[in-house]
Amino acid sequence: MDHNKIEQLRLRLRRDSDIGIHGILDSQAVRYYEEKEEDKNYIDIRSPFFRDVDRIVHSKAYARYIDKTQVFFDINNANITHRSLHVILVSRIARQIGRVLKLNTDLIEAIALGHDIGHPPFGHLGEYILNEISRKNNMGKFLHNGQSIRWLTHLEKRFPKKPANGLNLTLQVLDGILCHDGEINEQKLKPKKINGKTWNDHFKEYNDCFNKNKIKRIPMSNEGVVVRFADAISYIGRDIEDAILLKFIKRREIPETCIKILGDTNRKIINTLIMDLLNFSLDNDIIGYSEKIFEALKELKSFNNKEIYLRRDLLQKKDSIIPYADELTEKFELIFKKCLKDLEEENYDAPVFKDHIEYIDNENYTTYFKPLKKNNLTLIVRDYIAGMSDKYFKEIYEKSSKKI
C-alpha cells in the first residue's frame, strides 16, 4: 500500500473512533456515483459528510437562503429571523446534541444546513400556495422536503456530463434532508432501518413527496432524527421572540403551563428542551423527550400556530381589505401564469430563462428545458418560483403585473 493510501486510512480511522455505536461512521458514507480524483497525488483530508457540507454551502440554492422568510414577511426589521439564520440555529443545536450522544456531527451539519434548500419564498404560507398551484395544474403535490432533494440532485450542476446527480451528495445526507419535519409532534423516534436504506428506498420516498405523499418518512440515521428534533427546538421559542419584538403578541400571553415547564424566553425554552432530550436519550436506545416536556411542547406549538402563524396569514395591510394570504396567492398565480406563457412562446429574454434556466442548463437549453417542453413546462415554473427569494419574488411580480 502506498504512502497516500496509508495516510487516508489513518485519518479515516481517527475520525471514526470519535463516533459512538449509534452514529454513522464516515467510512459508511454512500454516494450514487463513484468519484475519482484525476490528480492521484491529491489528498482530501475532509470526511465525506464534511465534503457534503461544503458542496451545500457553495451551491446557488444555499445562497438564496439570505433573503427567504422564516415566519414574518414584508416587515422592514433586520432583527427578525430569516431562513439563513434558522438553518444555522438548527445546525448548532443539532451538533450540540449529537456531540453529547457521540453521533457524526459532520453528517448532522450537512443535513441541517441543507434541510430547507427547497423552501419557497414566504415560508410555509408560500409552500401551501405553491402546493395548491401544483394541484390545480395536475402536478401532484409540492413539499419543500422533496424540492430540497430536487435542487441538490437535479438542478444544481457539479457533474454536467452525468444526468440527474447534481452535487452527488451521500445517501445519508439526502435522506436526512428528505425526512426532516419540525412541524409534526413526536415524543420519541428511532431510525427507520437499522441497516440503513437503499437508493431505491430513497427514490421511492422522494417520488411520493410529489404524488400521494402517503409514506411516513423516518430518517435512516440517528443524525437525521436529531436534526428533526432540533428543527422544532430552534424555531419554537425564536418565533415567539420575533412576535414579541414586532408587538404581535405579549410575553404574558404564553400559556402558564408552558412558562412553568419550558420557560418564557427563547434561551430558557432551548435549554429546557435540549437538556430533557439528552437526559431521556442517554438512558434509552431511542431519541426523544420525557412525557411532561413533550406535552408542554405540543401546547406551545399549538399556541404559536393559533396566535402567530394563523394571525399572520389573516392579517390585512392598511391599504387593503384582502387578507395577506389571499393577496399573496394572487401574486403567486400571476407569476406562474406569466412565466408559463414565456416558456410556451420561448421568450428567451424573460427572467425565467435568464435567471433560472441559464443557471442550471448551460448547453443551449437541451438538458432541462427542451425535454420538458414537450411534457410539462409547469414543472420548470414551479422550480423557478420555489427557488426565489422574497425580494426577488417581489421584483418579478412587479414586472409580471405590468405585462399581463
Fold and architecture overview:
The chain is mainly alpha-helical and 404 residues long. It has two domains: 3-34 and 44-314, Hypothetical protein af1432 (Orthogonal Bundle), CATH 1.10.3210.10; 324-403, no CATH class. The chain has helices spanning 3-16, 48-57, 60-63, 83-100, 105-114, 123-136, 144-155, 171-178, 199-209, 222-245, 256-261, 266-282, 291-314, 324-344, 351-360, 369-373, 377-386, 390-403, and strands at residues 188-189, 287-288. Helix 4 packs antiparallel against helix 5 and helix 5 crosses helix 10 (222-245). The radius of gyration is 22 Å and the shape is globular.
Show the helix and strand layout:
Elements: H1 3-16, H2 48-57, H3 60-63, H4 83-100, H5 105-114, H6 123-136, H7 144-155, H8 171-178, E1 188-189, H9 199-209, H10 222-245, H11 256-261, H12 266-282, E2 287-288, H13 291-314, H14 324-344, H15 351-360, H16 369-373, H17 377-386, H18 390-403
Helix pairs in contact: 2-5, 4-5, 4-10, 5-8, 5-10, 6-14, 8-9, 8-10, 10-12, 10-13, 14-17, 14-18
* Regions with little confidence, pLDDT below 50 for 5+ residues: none
Name the strands of the widest sheet in spatial order. 1-2
Largest sheet: 2 strands, antiparallel
Helix content: 55-70%
> Roughly how many Å is the radius of gyration?
22 Å
Structural class by sheet pairing and helices:
mainly alpha
Number of domains: 2
Q: How many strand units?
A: 2
Query: Would you give the CATH topology of the largest domain?
Result: Hypothetical protein af1432
In CATH, the architecture of the largest domain is Orthogonal Bundle
Q: Helix tally? A: 18
- Distance linking N and C termini: 67 Å
CATH homologous superfamily label of the largest domain: Hypothetical protein af1432
User: In percent, how much strand structure appears in the residues?
Assistant: under 5%
Coarse shape: globular
Q: Could you spell the SSE succession in H and E letters?
A: HHHHHHHHEHHHHEHHHHHH
CATH domain class name of the largest domain: Mainly Alpha
